[in-house]
UniProtKB/TrEMBL annotation:
Belongs to the class-IV pyridoxal-phosphate-dependent aminotransferase family. The modification N6-(pyridoxal phosphate)lysine is found at residue 121. PROSITE patterns: AA_TRANSFER_CLASS_4. Its cofactor is pyridoxal 5'-phosphate. GO terms for biological process: amino acid biosynthetic process; branched-chain amino acid biosynthetic process. Its EC number is 2.6.1.42. Pfam families: Aminotran_4 (PF01063). It catalyses: L-leucine + 2-oxoglutarate = 4-methyl-2-oxopentanoate + L-glutamate; L-valine + 2-oxoglutarate = 3-methyl-2-oxobutanoate + L-glutamate; L-isoleucine + 2-oxoglutarate = (S)-3-methyl-2-oxopentanoate + L-glutamate. InterPro entries: Aminotrans_IV, Aminotrans_IV_CS, Aminotransferase-like, B_amino_transII, BCAT-like_C, BCAT-like_N. It comes from the Eukaryota. This is Branched-chain-amino-acid aminotransferase. Keywords: Amino-acid biosynthesis, Aminotransferase, Branched-chain amino acid biosynthesis, Pyridoxal phosphate, Transferase.
Amino acid sequence: MHAMESSFFGLFEGLKAYRTQMGRITLFRPEQNALRMQMGADRLCMTPPSVDQFVEAVTQTVIANKKWGVVAVLGIASAPEYMFVVYVSPVGNYHKVSSGLNLKVDHTYRRAHTGGTGGVKSCTNYSPVVKSLREAKSAGFSDVLFLDAATGRNIEEVSTCNIFVVKENILSTPPISGTILPGITRKSISELARDIGYQVQERDVSVDELLEAEEVFCKGTAVVVRAVESVTFYETKIKYITGENALSTKLHVMLTNIQMGVVEDTKDWMVEINDTIGIDTFLN
Ligand SMILES: Cc1ncc(COP(=O)(O)O)c(C=O)c1O
């Protein structure tokens, strides 16, 4: 069991209720907000309320709050207080396939922009991904590989994991420059690969390099290390080495051997928990 990968999609609308000179309570074009919510919901693959449901819900809420609204404060600011929540879930294979991943390079949607929040684990990073992922999955792909928003020429990352491209003894991975998540697995795999004599380059990796790569693989807490069997860019499908002879298999074994205590943790990566409560307490 480990802390679950989580994604939250949120969508909201904002409109005002007015108290007119005559003392009536009115809404300004609420059906327009309802329609905008429907557009947003479609983009985030959510089920929207109908226009009637939306207007009715707003109406009821306004009525219920008609005696409030004394302090006129609304704005974008960090909250004065936050709740820190840790939750756990059993996890299985993240991608429901036993072989390598078949990735689709997304040439339409962009995941993160320079100056945005792509480099931090913000919930907002997952909303742009969901529609692209749904479309790719319904076309038979396992996941989506996003390109940089600025040029659309360099690969960035997959929806929930980082990516490595292997050619000869060089592993290349996009740099941490604010648009991709600095994965802890990425960092660990880089170190393990260097340990066994590979060169690891953190640099812009052009989508064209996918054509010449021998191997491509993903890594992240959820996916661990996962070979990519193919990458499809427009109509071109490129295949890669997977299986026993793949470097990704070797790195997967190296990492999981450390995580599962099969080999000595010489890097001091594992933190032991002193289980004073005892697992039986939870199981009973
Ligand atoms: C967008 C994204 N990129 C990369 C990663 C990999 O990061 P890590 O290896 O720290 O799990 C994750 C997973 O959490 C992710 O959600």
